[in-house]
């Protein structure tokens, strides 16, 4: 991205701030975003959709004492910026005062100075024809894998790059760029009765040099799809449940939601009042880290500063089963009489929320095969459906499908079942944790086994 653009965006942020302060704001914060996206979908070998788009926008948050409001615009003209500032100040004047409102204190601002390797030019340098060809190859490999695969949801290839600048009236200026690329295939398989199943697999990175082989990804998508054929229900029972990494990360993700400072302040979480208490088994350590760099590449949740200009950091939420920290931004930290954990997340408009960096359950020592190997009868979950988590009570109930375990082996596919329990018990009943922690997104967890869940079926 040329320096000229960077200068223009920084100047825009600076101009918006000074305009807001001159117009009567006591404090202000501007965020300027610019991004490009590309996506191609190939289905049955033919290009079905091709999209390329660019966007840029500016967001403004103003304070008049302890009144606050925010506005945003994708129009960078002088008239539009004037309306943006005027709109924010007009709104701020009619909102109620909030004793917790305000930018962080000046000494709290900062950012990671070292290069976190979040941006790679090669994402944009790959010709579109090459990206489409990777999508085509991935789908073709899935289709060729087995005669039962006759149809496809398609193969796709996506890239995106973004550039963000955050500036405020207390002297903070920060910016970073990020890049992303990834591809996948979603084959559809038929059994002899005409029943259909689908699944998918993918590869993604910040740089094209780290993407996996398209044929291998297509074949893995095919294997995952074929494993679903012939799925049946099982009888209602209590049994051990093993969660694949893709599903385990969602269950562990509920720890972040339960430790969210906003939910804690509202007393709307089963972690309320639990700091220093045992909330999980001794084998459980859960970490949020916005600074991770894997193999010379920044993690999907890595960034130099959070949505308010505080440096990102490593926060241990649960250490050996003990709840050590809540996660918060400046606003919720003030409400809880604590310090921000650098987890402010910021869109263009609205007040900052609370978001994770790279969030994960520390790996164990067992292979997935070992975890499954000593189960006489149980469930291996590969997909969940619905939104059946109550963070106030901890109640958990989700539709599920996967594979039934018999005598330590994956025996046959199952579907149309529900798994249920309570997170307060589930976190204490994680009896085995895998060594297969791989980040395919900003959150990750290895394979894990939970005892005594209810499986509702036939």
Automatic annotation (TrEMBL):
One of its GO terms (cellular component) is cytosol. GO terms for molecular function: metallopeptidase activity. This is PmbA protein. InterPro entries: Metalloprtase-TldD/E_C (IPR045569), Metalloprtase-TldD/E_cen_dom (IPR045570), Metalloprtase-TldD/E_N (IPR002510), PmbA (IPR047657), TldD/PmbA_N (IPR035068), TldD/PmbA_sf (IPR036059). Residues 28-92 form the Metalloprotease TldD/E N-terminal domain. Residues 122-229 form the Metalloprotease TldD/E central domain. GO terms for biological process: proteolysis. Residues 236-457 form the Metalloprotease TldD/E C-terminal domain. Gene3D superfamilies: PmbA/TldD superfamily (3.30.2290.10). Pfam families: PmbA_TldD_1st, PmbA_TldD_2nd, PmbA_TldD_3rd. Belongs to the peptidase U62 family.
